[in-house]
Amino acid sequence: MIIIDNSEYMRNGDYQPTRFEAQSDAVNVVFQTKIDSNPENTVGIMTMAGKGPEVLVTHTKDLGQILGGVHSAANKIGGSIDIPTSLAVAQLALKHRENKNLRQRIIVFVASPPETDQETMVKLAKKLKKNNVAVDIVAFGDGIEEDEGGVLKAFVDNINSSDNSHLLTAQPGAHLLSDALISSPILSADRSASIPEALGGTAAPAEGSSAPSNDFEFGVDPSLDPELAMALRMSMQEAQAREAAEAAASSSTPSGNTGTSTPTPATASRTTVPADPTDDEEERMLQDAIKLSQQPGAEGDDDDEEDDEEEEEEEEDGDVEMEDEEEDDEEDEDEDEDEDAAIARAIAMSMKGPDDKGTAKK
Length: 362
Description:
The chain is α/β, with parallel strands linked by helices. It has twelve helices and six strands. It has two domains: about 1-230, von Willebrand factor, type A domain (Rossmann fold); about 285-360.
Protein backbone atom coordinates (compact mmCIF):
# COMPACT_ATOMS: atom_id res chain seq x y z
CA MET A 1 0.00 0.00 0.00
CA ILE A 2 1.37 3.41 -1.00
CA ILE A 3 0.48 6.38 1.21
CA ILE A 4 1.09 9.74 -0.45
CA ASP A 5 1.33 13.18 1.11
CA ASN A 6 -1.24 15.68 -0.22
CA SER A 7 -0.83 18.41 2.39
CA GLU A 8 -0.23 22.10 1.73
CA TYR A 9 3.52 21.50 1.88
CA MET A 10 3.30 19.63 -1.46
CA ARG A 11 2.93 22.92 -3.36
CA ASN A 12 6.59 23.82 -2.76
CA GLY A 13 8.96 23.77 -5.72
CA ASP A 14 12.24 22.71 -4.06
CA TYR A 15 11.83 19.33 -5.83
CA GLN A 16 11.38 19.75 -9.58
CA PRO A 17 8.84 20.61 -10.79
CA THR A 18 6.94 20.49 -7.49
CA ARG A 19 6.96 18.18 -4.52
CA PHE A 20 3.69 16.58 -5.56
CA GLU A 21 4.84 15.98 -9.15
CA ALA A 22 8.12 14.48 -7.91
CA GLN A 23 6.10 12.24 -5.58
CA SER A 24 3.84 11.16 -8.48
CA ASP A 25 6.88 10.12 -10.52
CA ALA A 26 8.21 8.13 -7.57
CA VAL A 27 4.83 6.38 -7.16
CA ASN A 28 4.98 5.33 -10.82
CA VAL A 29 8.47 3.88 -10.29
CA VAL A 30 7.37 1.97 -7.20
CA PHE A 31 4.38 0.46 -8.96
CA GLN A 32 6.37 -0.62 -12.03
CA THR A 33 9.14 -2.14 -9.89
CA LYS A 34 6.76 -4.11 -7.69
CA ILE A 35 4.75 -5.47 -10.62
CA ASP A 36 7.87 -6.37 -12.64
CA SER A 37 9.47 -8.22 -9.72
CA ASN A 38 6.48 -10.56 -9.33
CA PRO A 39 3.38 -10.67 -11.58
CA GLU A 40 1.23 -11.64 -8.57
CA ASN A 41 2.02 -8.42 -6.71
CA THR A 42 -0.75 -5.86 -6.26
CA VAL A 43 -0.50 -2.20 -5.28
CA GLY A 44 -3.01 0.20 -3.73
CA ILE A 45 -2.79 3.93 -3.06
CA MET A 46 -4.27 6.30 -0.48
CA THR A 47 -3.83 9.86 0.85
CA MET A 48 -3.23 10.99 4.44
CA ALA A 49 -4.14 14.70 4.37
CA GLY A 50 -7.05 16.83 3.19
CA LYS A 51 -10.26 16.07 5.03
CA GLY A 52 -8.73 12.83 6.28
CA PRO A 53 -7.04 9.61 5.12
CA GLU A 54 -8.76 8.25 2.01
CA VAL A 55 -8.20 5.09 -0.04
CA LEU A 56 -8.05 6.13 -3.69
CA VAL A 57 -7.42 2.73 -5.34
CA THR A 58 -7.59 -0.70 -3.77
CA HIS A 59 -5.01 -3.32 -4.67
CA THR A 60 -4.66 -3.64 -8.42
CA LYS A 61 -2.20 -4.49 -11.21
CA ASP A 62 -3.49 -1.75 -13.52
CA LEU A 63 -1.16 1.23 -13.81
CA GLY A 64 -3.99 3.33 -15.25
CA GLN A 65 -5.96 3.10 -12.01
CA ILE A 66 -2.94 4.17 -9.97
CA LEU A 67 -2.28 7.16 -12.22
CA GLY A 68 -5.96 8.08 -12.06
CA GLY A 69 -5.84 8.01 -8.26
CA VAL A 70 -2.75 10.23 -8.21
CA HIS A 71 -4.45 12.65 -10.58
CA SER A 72 -7.52 12.86 -8.36
CA ALA A 73 -5.30 13.47 -5.33
CA ALA A 74 -3.76 16.48 -7.09
CA ASN A 75 -7.14 18.20 -6.76
CA LYS A 76 -7.29 17.45 -3.03
CA ILE A 77 -4.13 19.17 -1.82
CA GLY A 78 -4.64 20.80 1.56
CA GLY A 79 -4.64 20.28 5.29
CA SER A 80 -2.03 18.39 7.31
CA ILE A 81 -0.99 14.76 7.46
CA ASP A 82 -2.16 12.17 9.99
CA ILE A 83 0.41 9.36 9.93
CA PRO A 84 -1.01 7.06 12.68
CA THR A 85 -4.52 7.02 11.24
CA SER A 86 -3.21 6.52 7.70
CA LEU A 87 -1.11 3.53 8.78
CA ALA A 88 -4.12 1.97 10.53
CA VAL A 89 -6.27 2.36 7.41
CA ALA A 90 -3.50 0.94 5.22
CA GLN A 91 -3.13 -2.08 7.51
CA LEU A 92 -6.89 -2.70 7.26
CA ALA A 93 -6.70 -2.53 3.45
CA LEU A 94 -3.82 -5.02 3.42
CA LYS A 95 -5.75 -7.36 5.70
CA HIS A 96 -8.51 -7.64 3.08
CA ARG A 97 -6.17 -8.45 0.18
CA GLU A 98 -7.21 -11.31 -2.11
CA ASN A 99 -3.97 -13.32 -2.04
CA LYS A 100 -3.18 -14.00 1.60
CA ASN A 101 0.19 -15.54 0.69
CA LEU A 102 1.63 -12.17 -0.34
CA ARG A 103 3.68 -10.30 2.25
CA GLN A 104 2.33 -6.98 3.53
CA ARG A 105 4.26 -3.74 2.98
CA ILE A 106 3.43 -0.05 3.34
CA ILE A 107 5.45 2.73 1.65
CA VAL A 108 4.82 6.18 3.15
CA PHE A 109 5.86 9.46 1.47
CA VAL A 110 6.33 12.19 4.08
CA ALA A 111 7.08 15.76 2.98
CA SER A 112 5.47 17.51 5.96
CA PRO A 113 6.52 17.74 9.60
CA PRO A 114 5.14 14.63 11.40
CA GLU A 115 2.65 16.09 13.88
CA THR A 116 2.55 13.17 16.30
CA ASP A 117 4.35 12.11 19.43
CA GLN A 118 7.01 9.45 19.51
CA GLU A 119 5.22 7.25 22.04
CA THR A 120 2.20 6.81 19.77
CA MET A 121 4.41 5.99 16.79
CA VAL A 122 6.42 3.41 18.74
CA LYS A 123 3.24 1.71 19.99
CA LEU A 124 1.89 1.58 16.42
CA ALA A 125 5.19 0.18 15.15
CA LYS A 126 5.08 -2.73 17.60
CA LYS A 127 1.50 -3.51 16.57
CA LEU A 128 2.38 -3.57 12.87
CA LYS A 129 5.45 -5.69 13.53
CA LYS A 130 3.28 -8.21 15.37
CA ASN A 131 1.03 -8.47 12.29
CA ASN A 132 4.05 -8.98 9.98
CA VAL A 133 3.65 -5.65 8.20
CA ALA A 134 6.81 -3.96 6.84
CA VAL A 135 6.89 -0.18 6.51
CA ASP A 136 9.25 1.93 4.35
CA ILE A 137 9.28 5.70 4.87
CA VAL A 138 10.50 8.16 2.20
CA ALA A 139 11.21 11.48 3.93
CA PHE A 140 11.82 14.54 1.77
CA GLY A 141 11.22 18.26 2.04
CA ASP A 142 9.92 19.22 5.47
CA GLY A 143 9.66 15.55 6.41
CA ILE A 144 13.44 15.31 6.82
CA GLU A 145 14.30 15.14 10.52
CA GLU A 146 17.51 16.79 11.62
CA ASP A 147 17.43 15.09 15.01
CA GLU A 148 18.81 11.53 15.07
CA GLY A 149 16.14 10.54 17.57
CA GLY A 150 13.22 11.75 15.49
CA VAL A 151 9.77 10.27 15.36
CA LEU A 152 10.23 8.57 11.97
CA LYS A 153 13.62 7.11 12.94
CA ALA A 154 12.20 5.68 16.17
CA PHE A 155 9.23 4.22 14.30
CA VAL A 156 11.45 2.39 11.78
CA ASP A 157 13.78 1.08 14.48
CA ASN A 158 10.87 -0.49 16.38
CA ILE A 159 9.09 -2.00 13.37
CA ASN A 160 12.21 -3.34 11.67
CA SER A 161 12.41 -7.14 11.62
CA SER A 162 15.22 -8.89 9.74
CA ASP A 163 15.94 -5.60 7.97
CA ASN A 164 12.53 -5.49 6.20
CA SER A 165 11.83 -1.80 6.91
CA HIS A 166 13.84 1.25 5.85
CA LEU A 167 13.97 5.01 6.22
CA LEU A 168 15.11 6.93 3.11
CA THR A 169 16.04 10.60 3.36
CA ALA A 170 16.06 12.35 -0.04
CA GLN A 171 17.68 15.76 0.01
CA PRO A 172 16.63 18.36 -2.60
CA GLY A 173 18.92 18.85 -5.57
CA ALA A 174 19.34 18.29 -9.27
CA HIS A 175 18.52 14.58 -9.02
CA LEU A 176 14.97 13.26 -9.08
CA LEU A 177 13.19 11.77 -6.12
CA SER A 178 12.57 8.61 -8.13
CA ASP A 179 16.33 8.23 -8.79
CA ALA A 180 17.08 8.23 -5.08
CA LEU A 181 14.30 5.70 -4.56
CA ILE A 182 15.58 3.38 -7.31
CA SER A 183 19.07 3.06 -5.82
CA SER A 184 17.81 2.71 -2.23
CA PRO A 185 17.31 -0.56 -0.31
CA ILE A 186 13.54 -0.01 -0.57
CA LEU A 187 13.48 -1.18 -4.21
CA SER A 188 16.88 -2.86 -4.61
CA ALA A 189 15.61 -6.38 -3.90
CA ASP A 190 12.62 -5.98 -6.20
CA ARG A 191 14.74 -4.55 -9.01
CA SER A 192 17.22 -7.41 -8.63
CA ALA A 193 14.36 -9.90 -8.90
CA SER A 194 13.11 -8.23 -12.12
CA ILE A 195 16.55 -8.36 -13.82
CA PRO A 196 17.53 -11.64 -15.57
CA GLU A 197 20.37 -13.56 -13.98
CA ALA A 198 22.37 -13.32 -17.24
CA LEU A 199 22.36 -9.54 -16.83
CA GLY A 200 23.57 -9.60 -13.25
CA GLY A 201 20.22 -9.75 -11.50
CA THR A 202 21.73 -11.46 -8.46
CA ALA A 203 24.21 -8.61 -7.93
CA ALA A 204 21.89 -6.52 -5.75
CA PRO A 205 23.22 -3.94 -3.27
CA ALA A 206 23.69 -5.11 0.29
CA GLU A 207 20.52 -5.04 2.34
CA GLY A 208 20.33 -2.49 5.08
CA SER A 209 22.63 0.05 3.43
CA SER A 210 21.05 3.43 4.08
CA ALA A 211 23.21 5.36 1.58
CA PRO A 212 22.07 5.20 -2.05
CA SER A 213 24.50 3.67 -4.54
CA ASN A 214 24.73 3.48 -8.33
CA ASP A 215 27.31 0.69 -8.53
CA PHE A 216 25.74 -1.05 -11.52
CA GLU A 217 27.93 -3.26 -13.68
CA PHE A 218 29.49 -1.19 -16.50
CA GLY A 219 27.71 1.86 -15.02
CA VAL A 220 24.41 0.87 -16.75
CA ASP A 221 21.19 -0.19 -15.06
CA PRO A 222 20.20 -3.47 -16.84
CA SER A 223 16.52 -2.94 -16.10
CA LEU A 224 16.49 0.42 -17.92
CA ASP A 225 18.53 -0.66 -20.98
CA PRO A 226 18.88 -4.48 -21.08
CA GLU A 227 20.16 -4.52 -24.68
CA LEU A 228 23.07 -2.20 -23.88
CA ALA A 229 23.90 -4.17 -20.75
CA MET A 230 23.88 -7.44 -22.74
CA ALA A 231 26.11 -5.94 -25.45
CA LEU A 232 28.60 -4.72 -22.84
CA ARG A 233 28.61 -8.10 -21.12
CA MET A 234 29.19 -9.96 -24.43
CA SER A 235 32.02 -7.57 -25.30
CA MET A 236 33.65 -8.24 -21.94
CA GLN A 237 33.31 -12.01 -22.41
CA GLU A 238 34.90 -11.80 -25.87
CA ALA A 239 37.80 -9.78 -24.46
CA GLN A 240 38.28 -12.35 -21.70
CA ALA A 241 38.21 -15.17 -24.28
CA ARG A 242 40.89 -13.44 -26.37
CA GLU A 243 43.07 -12.92 -23.31
CA ALA A 244 42.67 -16.57 -22.34
CA ALA A 245 43.61 -17.69 -25.88
CA GLU A 246 46.69 -15.47 -25.88
CA ALA A 247 47.72 -16.79 -22.47
CA ALA A 248 47.28 -20.37 -23.66
CA ALA A 249 49.32 -19.68 -26.80
CA SER A 250 52.14 -18.08 -24.81
CA SER A 251 52.18 -20.94 -22.31
CA SER A 252 52.29 -23.55 -25.11
CA THR A 253 55.51 -22.07 -26.63
CA PRO A 254 58.54 -24.38 -26.13
CA SER A 255 60.85 -23.62 -23.22
CA GLY A 256 63.86 -25.26 -21.63
CA ASN A 257 61.92 -27.23 -18.99
CA THR A 258 59.36 -28.72 -21.42
CA GLY A 259 59.63 -32.02 -23.23
CA THR A 260 59.01 -30.55 -26.67
CA SER A 261 61.94 -29.82 -28.95
CA THR A 262 62.22 -27.10 -31.52
CA PRO A 263 63.10 -28.06 -35.11
CA THR A 264 66.73 -27.42 -36.09
CA PRO A 265 67.59 -25.15 -39.03
CA ALA A 266 68.60 -28.19 -41.10
CA THR A 267 65.22 -29.78 -40.55
CA ALA A 268 63.53 -26.54 -41.43
CA SER A 269 65.48 -26.34 -44.68
CA ARG A 270 64.46 -29.89 -45.62
CA THR A 271 60.82 -29.00 -45.18
CA THR A 272 60.96 -25.99 -47.48
CA VAL A 273 58.83 -26.10 -50.61
CA PRO A 274 60.85 -26.68 -53.87
CA ALA A 275 61.06 -23.78 -56.28
CA ASP A 276 58.87 -23.73 -59.36
CA PRO A 277 60.89 -24.56 -62.57
CA THR A 278 59.07 -21.85 -64.50
CA ASP A 279 60.68 -19.26 -62.26
CA ASP A 280 64.15 -20.37 -63.40
CA GLU A 281 63.18 -20.15 -67.09
CA GLU A 282 61.75 -16.66 -66.67
CA GLU A 283 64.87 -15.51 -64.86
CA ARG A 284 67.08 -16.95 -67.60
CA MET A 285 65.06 -15.28 -70.37
CA LEU A 286 65.26 -12.02 -68.49
CA GLN A 287 69.06 -12.28 -68.29
CA ASP A 288 69.28 -12.98 -72.06
CA ALA A 289 67.14 -9.97 -72.84
CA ILE A 290 69.36 -7.77 -70.68
CA LYS A 291 72.50 -9.01 -72.50
CA LEU A 292 70.94 -8.36 -75.92
CA SER A 293 69.93 -4.85 -74.92
CA GLN A 294 73.48 -4.08 -73.79
CA GLN A 295 75.06 -5.06 -77.17
CA PRO A 296 75.95 -2.11 -79.54
CA GLY A 297 73.54 -1.64 -82.46
CA ALA A 298 71.00 -3.86 -80.93
CA GLU A 299 68.53 -1.09 -80.65
CA GLY A 300 69.03 0.00 -84.29
CA ASP A 301 68.66 -3.57 -85.55
CA ASP A 302 65.51 -3.96 -83.55
CA ASP A 303 64.15 -0.72 -84.94
CA ASP A 304 64.99 -1.76 -88.55
CA GLU A 305 63.40 -5.14 -88.05
CA GLU A 306 60.30 -3.53 -86.63
CA ASP A 307 60.14 -1.07 -89.57
CA ASP A 308 60.52 -3.93 -92.09
CA GLU A 309 57.80 -5.88 -90.41
CA GLU A 310 55.50 -2.84 -90.47
CA GLU A 311 56.14 -2.25 -94.20
CA GLU A 312 55.48 -5.90 -95.04
CA GLU A 313 52.25 -5.77 -93.09
CA GLU A 314 51.18 -2.60 -94.93
CA GLU A 315 52.02 -4.17 -98.35
CA GLU A 316 50.05 -7.27 -97.50
CA ASP A 317 47.11 -5.13 -96.46
CA GLY A 318 47.33 -3.21 -99.80
CA ASP A 319 47.42 -6.42 -101.80
CA VAL A 320 44.40 -7.75 -99.98
CA GLU A 321 42.46 -4.56 -100.64
CA MET A 322 43.36 -4.57 -104.39
CA GLU A 323 42.31 -8.19 -104.75
CA ASP A 324 39.00 -7.40 -103.10
CA GLU A 325 38.40 -4.49 -105.50
CA GLU A 326 39.22 -6.60 -108.59
CA GLU A 327 36.82 -9.31 -107.50
CA ASP A 328 34.07 -6.71 -107.00
CA ASP A 329 34.70 -5.27 -110.55
CA GLU A 330 34.57 -8.72 -112.17
CA GLU A 331 31.29 -9.51 -110.46
CA ASP A 332 29.79 -6.19 -111.67
CA GLU A 333 30.94 -6.85 -115.28
CA ASP A 334 29.47 -10.37 -115.27
CA GLU A 335 26.15 -9.04 -114.07
CA ASP A 336 26.13 -6.33 -116.84
CA GLU A 337 26.93 -8.93 -119.54
CA ASP A 338 24.16 -11.22 -118.40
CA GLU A 339 21.60 -8.40 -118.54
CA ASP A 340 22.69 -7.26 -122.07
CA ALA A 341 22.60 -10.81 -123.47
CA ALA A 342 19.11 -11.39 -122.11
CA ILE A 343 17.84 -8.17 -123.66
CA ALA A 344 19.41 -9.06 -127.08
CA ARG A 345 17.82 -12.53 -127.12
CA ALA A 346 14.45 -11.09 -126.28
CA ILE A 347 14.64 -8.57 -129.13
CA ALA A 348 15.76 -11.26 -131.65
CA MET A 349 12.91 -13.59 -130.73
CA SER A 350 10.32 -10.82 -131.13
CA MET A 351 11.56 -9.95 -134.67
CA LYS A 352 11.35 -13.53 -136.05
CA GLY A 353 8.25 -14.65 -137.94
CA PRO A 354 6.24 -17.84 -137.64
CA ASP A 355 8.55 -19.74 -140.01
CA ASP A 356 11.52 -18.78 -138.03
CA LYS A 357 9.76 -20.07 -134.91
CA GLY A 358 9.05 -23.42 -136.56
CA THR A 359 12.58 -23.65 -137.79
CA ALA A 360 13.83 -22.79 -134.43
CA LYS A 361 11.61 -25.56 -132.97
CA LYS A 362 12.95 -28.09 -135.48
